[in-house]
Amino acid sequence: MISRVVSAGRAIAAPAGEIFELIADPAQQPRWDGNDNLAEAVAGGRVRAVGDVFAMKLTSGAVRENHVVEFSEGRLIAWRPSEPGGTPPGHLWRWEIEESEPGTSWVTHTYDWTDLTDEKRFPRAEATTTDKLRASVDRLAELVEG
Questions:
Q1: Helix or strand run (H / E) with residue 125
Q2: Which tens digit of pLDDT belongs to each residue from 43-73?
Q3: CB atoms within 10 A of CB 18
Q4: What is d(CA 73, CA 100) in angstroms, rounded to the nearest whole number?
Q5: How many domains does the chain have?
Q6: Domain enclosing residue 10, as ranges
């Protein structure tokens, strides 16, 4: 049985707030996307609260709206993607950041498709592996440590 929750984490030599800014600003997300799936933010600005929605254009040309469902400034952000104007089908992307000591943070990236019900999306969900999540965390590290 394939796990429907996949995570990757590592220490990054940067303050939590600096890392969080790259994640909470949709315009920055294509810079660190380990799936090479994001082309650009469609509109809007930095995420500030649960209930915010930000749109991303994918490299395929499709647009996804991301509904923020968890948010704690500088520490936690999670969203559920959907087709524009649609209801999220049940998968979730989460980022957790904890400053372990001044200037060093532990970053955990999680993909959770426990609530995904659209079976057509299962193959893509199954293909989202720890390695792909780690690639995003590693790219974040390169941006803030480099």
A1: helix 122-126
A2: 778 999 999 999 999 999 999 999 999 999 9
A3: 16
A4: 16
A5: 1
A6: 5-145
Q: Give the Å distances, CA to CA, from 1 to 106, 117, 126, 131.
A: 29, 16, 11, 18
The single-letter code of the amino acid at 127 is: A
The two tokens of residue 61 are: 């040309």
Q: Give the CATH number of the domain where residue 54 resides.
A: 3.30.530.20
Measured CA to CA in angstroms, residue 108 lies from 44, 58, 119, 124 at distances of 25, 23, 27, 21
Alpha-carbon distance 79 to 9, whole Å?
18
Token duo for residue 30: 């294509």
**Per-residue pLDDT, 44:** 73
Place of tokens 């999670």: 78
